[in-house]
Amino acid sequence: MRYLTNYFRRELGGHAFDYLLLVTAGIFFLVAVNSFKGERLLEFIILLSFASFYIIWGVYHHLIEDSLHLKIVIEYILIGFTILFLLKVIVFP
Q1: Between helices 16-35 and 2-14, what is the axis angle to 10°?
Q2: Quick one: 67 exposed, middle or buried, by C-beta within 10 A (0-12, 13-18, 19+)?
């Protein structure tokens, strides 16, 4: 457990701007989805734009770290669209 907390401290300390950008976009996403509640097309567009932002953010983050590989890009794409699918099917039916 101690290793995990030290890892998070190092990661947040070295990339504070990246994570601040991701958290800010997530809050903006939640506010946008809440303000357009009931409008299915706009909700889907907002969900799709956040999934796209997440993928671009992940590529940027690893590009800056110089650890970008095809496997990492595919992972971000799969996670982004899995979240899109789950939110669309479960939360916004």
Answers
A1: 90
A2: exposed
| CA 32/CA 64 separation, integer angstroms | 29
43 alpha carbon, distance to own chain's centre: 16
Report pTM: 0.85
What residues in the chain have per-residue pLDDT under 70?
A: none
Token pair 């070295």 in the structure block, residue:
14
Q: How many CA atoms lie within 13 A of 13 on its CB side?
A: 6
The string of pLDDT tens digits covering residues 77-88 is 999 999 999 988
Q: What integer pLDDT is reported at residue 2 of this predicted model?
A: 86
Instruction: Give the separation between CA 15 and CA 20, rounded to whole angstroms.
Output: 9
- Could you tell me the maximum CA-CA distance found in the chain, to the nearest angstrom? 45
In this predicted structure, what is the pLDDT of residue 31? Answer: 95
> Residue 14 carries which side chain, given as an amino acid letter?
G
